[in-house]
Amino acid sequence: MTIRSVMVGCGAYLPARVMTNADLEKVVDTSDDWIVERTGIKSRHIAAEGETTADLAEQAARAALAHAGLDAGQVDLIVLATATPDHTFPATATKVQARLGMTRGVAFDVQAVCSGFVYALAVADNFIKAGQAKVALVIGAETFSRILDWEDRTTCVLFGDGAGAVVLKAEEGRGTGADRGILTTHLHSDGRHHDMLFVDGGPSTTQTVGHVRMRGQEVFKHAVVNLAEVVEEALAANGLEPSQIDWLVPHQANKRIIDSTARKLKMDGTKVVVTVDHHGNTSAASIPLAFVEAVQDGRIKRGDLVLMEAMGGGFTWGAALVRW
Ligand code: ACO
């Protein structure tokens, strides 16, 4: 018998305010045509004034717990992926822990930018497999709008705010690909590429929060290569052919990057969950937001095999194969 981290619930939260490309045309020198053609993004959600990452995360966590039919008191572990925490410290996860009324367990943040959710999933899965947690909340939550330079049209049109969460529960499996839960996770990083995508501020450098800076074309090229490799790695580790994957739930950075990975997998577009058009890039929140949308509208069904993949600043990248 093998311990598996089974996804027993999921939930999401999006701020009420929707910002369209037409709205952005009033802020920077851009056009709906340019944004749609280069990225596939049409609109994104933006947190209200005073609405923080912890607020978004709390709502997503409550929705996921309700979906799982579990109380916060049963949760042993919260891993929250974010690059936009409420404060430099303490971890936003501890704020969510308190808000949920949890007086026990462990809560901490994971920082891997757009790969954050896959990283957090891997961390929680390893806690569960090591017997150190039985029920874990994995949250991806971001208020990326707060670290955008709203005068830089090359970045401010790309991102949005939101949160998604899943509940993992330790269950016994047979150790085969037929098991429900997380089958494998695959993480990578290469710090040599720091300057291609980073925030130009921080407590130890500038004592400011800073803004997102990106060399878009280079990020694009690395993303296409790294994602194709990690997806192949995940399939090989499980002895699977791309045709056996029911759903690809990619990080939602850019429709062209998503299409490229799907093409490499020879995956029909109807098996790829795309939300970038109405969410933009929500960094660590993008995979759980897309996953929840496809679960809620009935596309992803219990027992389906789901491949998640992401790439972000660092660079960091990774994949997870999950049977829902
Ligand atoms: N509106 C209008 N014109 C623009 C805009 C804009 N918002 N932004 C840039 N331009 C202009 C540029 O100034 C440039 O003009 P020029 O030719 O006169 O110099 C022209 O459009 C082309 O710019 P490029 O940067 O070459 O455009 P590109 O086709 O590479 O698209 C983009 C840019 C969308 C950022 C693309 O490189 C990309 O998606 N990269 C991946 C980045 C990403 O997704 N990062 C997210 C985090 S990492 C991850 O999640 C994978």
Which key phrases capture this entry?
324 residues, alpha/beta, Peroxisomal Thiolase, Chain A, domain 1, 2 domains, five-stranded mixed β-sheet, four-stranded mixed β-sheet, 10 helices, binds acetyl coenzyme *A
Summarize the structure.
This protein is an alpha/beta fold. The protein has helices spanning 21-25, 32-39, 53-68, 92-99, 116-129, 153-156, 216-237, 255-264, 276-279, 286-296; strands at residues 2-13, 17-20, 43-46, 77-81, 106-110, 135-143, 161-173, 181-189, 197-199, 212-214, 247-250, 305-312, 316-323. The protein has two domains: 2-173, Thiolase/Chalcone synthase (Peroxisomal Thiolase, Chain A, domain 1, 3-Layer(aba) Sandwich), CATH 3.40.47.10; 181-323, 3-Layer(aba) Sandwich (Peroxisomal Thiolase, Chain A, domain 1), CATH 3.40.47.10.
Name the average pLDDT: 97
How much of the sequence lies in strands comes to: 25-35%
Approximate shape: globular
Number of domains: 2
**pLDDT < 50 runs, ≥5 residues:** none
What proportion of the residues is helical, as a percent range? 25-40%
Cα distance, first to last residue?
19 Å
Radius of gyration: 18 Å
DSSP summary, beta strand count: 13
Number of helical stretches of at least 4 residues: 10
